[in-house]
Amino acid sequence: MIVDALRVFVTVAEQRHFSRAGELLNLSQPGVSLHIRNLENELGSKLLHRSPKAVRLTEAGAVLYKHAKQILAHYEEAAQEIRLLRDEVTGSLILGASFTIGEYLLPGRLAEFARQYPQVNLQVTIGNTEEIISAVKGNQLDIGFIEGETNDMELDIIPYMKDEMIITAAAGHPLAGEMIVDSGMLQNQIWVLRETGSGTRAYSDHFLQEGQLTVKRSYVFNSSQGVKEAVAAGLGLSLLSRWIVRKELASGEMVELRTRQKLPERDFLIIRRKEHQTAMAIRVFLEKLLTAEKA
């Protein structure tokens, strides 16, 4: 079947290696070579430059790769729609999310989807906002969830939900007993921050600069969980999503420092490549996710 040959060709092109492609496809190296040779014979053009270390696309191979990706996506979409006629949703769903969404919001949504559509293969990558944007643009993710803003012209951007950011501290922090914390009280404090590239870090930097707050010292962690644990241990203050600390606030382990002015909300966004192909599993997941949020 031509679809099988195209799938082998695309895998070899992306892995740049016959053996690695064979391992992913459960094919022997001679089997992989046979598919490539049959395609080259059918098209009358050499598709790959071969070397002992790697393979790379010829000019004809680059043309076929672009169209093969589209053909395979259309084939998968057709297969999904046919399965849907039998009340089935199958296939794969490869998601990426920034830490706040990936660790505290998405798991519950995915669990509900998996219970309803157990035949869909789910895969989730968690990284900071910049990493998720890069992976979506690099065709490594079907959908990305990010916190903050992006104006990247290569992406379709779908508003998902609002997120409330709050100033947090350990229950034993000197400011924990204050009813209202003004800007003077926030001067020369120790802050616990996310790494550069994080949506939370961008928001924190903006907050500190806008308030002209002098930072006595800062500690940097590359996960929201790390920041939360550090704050709970009394290391310093932090700006965190209410999603992250809701359990600790309820238990009294951490407190919210209230200011006279409400802190601005930020957006959670869904991002996709503009030239994306919508497989059925992706379409159903997005429809259910957005419908549930509006309900």
From TrEMBL:
<keyword id="KW-0805">Transcription regulation</keyword>
<dbReference type="Pfam" id="PF00126">
    <property type="entry name" value="HTH_1"/>
</dbReference>
<keyword id="KW-0238">DNA-binding</keyword>
<dbReference type="GO" id="GO:0003700">
    <property type="term" value="F:DNA-binding transcription factor activity"/>
</dbReference>
<comment type="similarity">
    <text>Belongs to the LysR transcriptional regulatory family.</text>
</comment>
<keyword id="KW-0804">Transcription</keyword>
<dbReference type="InterPro" id="IPR036390">
    <property type="entry name" value="WH_DNA-bd_sf"/>
</dbReference>
<protein>
    <submittedName>
        <fullName>Transcriptional regulator, LysR family</fullName>
    </submittedName>
</protein>
<dbReference type="InterPro" id="IPR000847">
    <property type="entry name" value="LysR_HTH_N"/>
</dbReference>
<dbReference type="InterPro" id="IPR036388">
    <property type="entry name" value="WH-like_DNA-bd_sf"/>
</dbReference>
<feature type="domain" description="HTH lysR-type">
    <location>
        <begin position="1"/>
        <end position="58"/>
    </location>
</feature>
<dbReference type="Pfam" id="PF03466">
    <property type="entry name" value="LysR_substrate"/>
</dbReference>
<dbReference type="InterPro" id="IPR005119">
    <property type="entry name" value="LysR_subst-bd"/>
</dbReference>
<dbReference type="GO" id="GO:0000976">
    <property type="term" value="F:transcription cis-regulatory region binding"/>
</dbReference>
